[in-house]
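look at this stuff:

>
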Amino acid sequence: MESVFRNCRLAFAREPIDRAPGPWLACYPIFQEALGSGETTFRALPDYARSVALRRTCIDAAEQAMACATLDDVRVSFIELRTQSVCEAVEDYLGKQKGERILLPDGVTGLRLNLIEHMQNIAPPLMARPPCLLRPGRHIFIDGWMRFFSYTTRGDLTIPLLAIDWLDFHDRLGALPPTRTI
């Protein structure tokens, strides 16, 4: 399946790092090979992808600019994979949780057919799509299950995925000076 991910990768964040993938990617075994080709830094992420990661913290809007500067060199990988490849990985993951292989009918559920019937004349707008935030370990998403279902249900050809070196991310946030409270 990993070779499928390499061939299916369609896009990645600007300014990729031209070197061997970092060891931090080992904690993302499901998409590790594909993520290696999209490795970059937090600074290179588009704002809509950066905001997904920052929402996972207790940082308020006023502190985000300082946090972004502190997080600039944190390693991340931002890629888009074919929806079919991501669905296969999700099916394998869910099957392992129950001890069997689960097939998601028609990409996700039978709900997809009902939605398509009701929304045939509605085209999704061309806009930045927030990525599904990957969870380290042998899991799939931290933040992104609903995005995954939305992207597959509306028939997107690709799904954006974001992996972050969470240890470095939280170490750098911990080094920020405490905020003043009045």
